[in-house]
Amino acid sequence: MPPSSSSGTRTTVISATPRGWTARSSPSCPPPPVRPDRWSSRPSSSAHASGVYYNAAAVIGPDGGIIGVYRKTHIPFTKSYEKYYFTPGPDLPVFDTPVGRIGVLICYDRWYPEAWRKLVAQGAQIVCCPISSGKLGAQSEAPVWEPLLRIRARENLVFVAAANRTGTEPPYENLGRSMIVSPLGDVLAGPGQDGRQSLTTKVDLNDVARCRQAMPFLRDRRPDLY
Fold first, then answer.
1. N or C: which end of the chain has fewer CB within 10 A?
2. 10 inside domain
3. Strand, coil or helix: what is 15?
4. CA–CA separation, 183 vs 116, rounded Å?
5. What is the C-alpha radius of gyration for the chain, rounded to an integer number of angstroms?
6. CA–CA separation, 153 vs 127, rounded Å?
7. Quick one: how far is CA 128 from the chain centroid?
8. CA distance 168 to 149
């Protein structure tokens, strides 16, 4: 649950420790915005403890049924103040679906190469990334948006489907530019334009095995060193 702010200029801050999440008081951190209309959330599964909330994405099959749920594992403490609201997910599952083995990374997760490699080690052929990324003041992810996704696809030899938010939600300016990327890092569809749209493309999942045979990045890893 979100910790409450103390009086004056001191604010409760959540920090990661080897044993989990703890709270401390800091005079320099601004309090989170009070936006109950935007920060309301629902438990992702009744199997989890009451009062525990996750930033989660459901994988839905062609019949409309839920194949599985991924809960965001890396929770940022940025202007979104997610650490006040969400608990980190416990694992990085890969889901068997009629269209292939799918892993999911949500927004901030994509910055962690270990998460990508974990999904690929479990057999992921496609990594889907729902993202809310853009510009806040002078800070913009535009210069690294496309290169990061293409590099992640190439270094892991996996298809990447990244859907990014568009439009504005002051003070944020969302970037859009959704795209689908091949295991070689080529952009197969996109980048998307401003406004709502759907990107589709046909892919051959056998390309994953062919690319991994031709470029054995996974075979030549040295886990004994790292």
1. C
2. no
3. strand
4. 13
5. 19
6. 9
7. 8
8. 22
Instruction: Tell me the average pLDDT of the chain.
Output: 80
> How much is the pLDDT for 150?
97
pLDDT of residue 50: 66
Is there a domain that residue 169 lies in? yes
Q: What is the pLDDT of residue 23?
A: 33
* Domain with 150 in it: 18-27+53-225
Tokens of 7: 């009086």
Query: Cα(208)–Cα(218) distance, rounded to whole angstroms?
Result: 12
Number of domains forming the structure of the chain: 1
DSSP for 112-126 reads -HHHHHHHHHTT-SE
Please indicate, yes or no, if residue 126 is contained in any of the structural domains: yes
The pLDDT tens digits of the residues spanning 158-208 come to: 999 999 998 888 888 888 999 999 999 999 998 877 778 889 999 999 999
Query: Could you tell me the two tokens for 42?
Result: 């629902």
Pairing type for strands 159-164 and 179-181 reads antiparallel
Task: Report yes or no: 65 and 87 within 8 Å, Cβ to Cβ.
Answer: no
Number of H helices, E strands in the chain: 4, 14
Longest dimension (CA), the chain: 61
State which residues of the chain have pLDDT below 50. Answer: 1-47
CATH of the domain at 96: 3.60.110.10
- With respect to residue 135, please indicate whether it lies within any of the assigned structural domains: yes
Residue that the structure tokens 């938010």 belong to:
165
